[in-house]
Amino acid sequence: MTSSRIWSWVAFGLGVAYFLLPLVGMFEFSLRARRGEYSFDAYASVLGDPQFRTTFAYSVTMALVTILLGVLIVLPTAFWVRLRMPRLRPLVEFITLLPLVIPVVVIAFGYIRLYNTSSILPLTGSVMGTNVLLALGYASLSLPYMYRAIDTGLRTIDVPTLTEAAQSLGAGWATILGRVILPNVLGAVLSGAFLTFAIVLGEYVFAALLNRPAFGPYMVWISGNRAYEPAALAVIAFAITWACMGLISLVSRTQKHTRARS
Amino acid sequence: MPYLDISHLEKSFGTNRVVKDFSLPIEKGEFVSLLGPSGCGKTTVLRMVAGFETPSAGAIRIEGKDVVPLRPNQRNIGMVFQAYALFPNLTVAQNVGFGLKIAGVAAAESRARVQEMLELIGLPEMGGRYPFQLSGGQQQRVALARALAPRPRVLLLDEPLSALDAKVRVRLRGEIREIQRRLGITTIFVTHDQEEALSISDRVVVMNAGIADQVGTPFEIYNHPASPFVASFVGTLTPFEATVVDPAAGTVMSGGLTMNLGRALAAQAGASLPIALRPEAVHLGRASGREIVLPATAREVEFLGSVIRIRAEAGGQAFLLDTFNRHDAPPPQPGEPVEISFSGRDVVVIGGR
Ligand SMILES: Nc1ncnc2c1ncn2[C@@H]1O[C@H](COP(=O)(O)OP(=O)(O)O)[C@@H](O)[C@H]1O
Ligand SMILES: [Mg+2]
Description:
heterodimer, A: mainly alpha, MetI-like fold, 12 helices, B: alpha+beta, Rossmann fold, 2 domains, 5-stranded antiparallel beta sheet, 8 helices, 20 strands, globular, binds magnesium ion
């Protein structure tokens, strides 16, 4: 083995250690709830906590709503920009990046000011209204990831020609989007969706400021009040994130028609 | 009344007039080609018929009804693109059945129609494949079947063979024509390849800078080009400037050579007349019926297989001539003196007869 190869392995090892050691440490810590021996007590306590279940269910529901909202907003927009306004693409891309530039606290306070109980559209006045507001906020947070993912997907197909082919066969816009465009960018849509899922699951500021029982605030609350459970929760959250990643690659691999491309 | 009637069509993009006063009546079942160099507006005409562009002026009528107000998906016009444009996520059978599904055709009927189409294009076993598993020629066949499956009123093809290699191109163009004849479908075929247009069309429209320069059968276009542009774009020829000597007798003079064209000319004596010779009208050596014989020098000799194309020079004027290859008569060498002959009757008068 040449020395350069040895050094690259060393660099690789250091990188792995940098990421894995904290995880291993955390995992090990999460197993020490019972004095003197390893156990899954912390996990049992977390999973058995009704608060965990309600906040988790709430956030998962919100995530699914957000994904649906995001796809409904982004797919037609990105499609239309590619089809009819290719010159506006950099501008639209910039707009979708704004949620990354503006702090969430600012957005949240802006929302609360705009939609408070004495405004024209008092969304915060009811639980459902607040949920809607939260989903809209999440959708805007997911915009940079959704748009990028879907736009990248659209780049792999000839959008104008496929659209015209479908039109000449009698298809309307809904059919074109649903049966021609969406299936061909499904992998991209799903990777955007899983990123959104991960973001919504861990989001704290929006949920806390709007006072909704979401998973993010629960995680913060539990880490201030318990010892071993936060570590167990972190491992669980980590596992969920990785499951999402795995699903992304699984989905993109099981799409038959894309097999030959990569 | 023509089946498809394009009349006084105009299209401008901003200040750029791309199609100018384009009129073309097409009979039912006719195969018409739009032929012209890149950028002359062929695709734009086709896209207006399909509904992807809105004309700036003019009308497009099918069976007497103006289709301009209709959206592309309401026109029932089939289209085949240069880039195939098959839906990559669908199998061949699903691609061909796409239009039927949208039209709400029942599943059993649709399946039968798809199979019928696949047999028509000679790919009956390929229904389960995905587009990426097919060659370019096969993909374009599938695209043709997909366009034809919903029984469109008109079929439009925009340079469908340009992305294919030469052998496939020649075979597929014959197949397209054969299928078109069998179904009797009214077809507009766009190409920049004059051989392609001449070989498969009932009529050819030669376009130049947004204008239809000449509309006619391949025979008319080739033998009686209506303009210098048509003459130079369709086929190869040697142009001359001639002066009319006696219009009634058909005598002209070019470079000190007096020729009788064997027909009356619609021009004044002394007027200049653009004429030309096709390479196949000029003969190497003497031959009966070719009264004009010139001593010349061979300059370039191009061996094309069955035909040998020679550029010869006579009296400072270059002549292109084609001669059939014969294994017992090797072609002249460049620089070698030769005799060439032709008949005045074979001279092409550009823009007239
Ligand atoms: N959407 C468009 N916007 C502006 N100019 C266009 C557009 N489509 C075509 N053109 C112009 O119209 C002219 C004719 O184009 P086209 O019909 O595609 O020619 P062809 O198919 O004969 O090569 C070209 O100069 C092209 O640049
Ligand atoms: Mg074109």
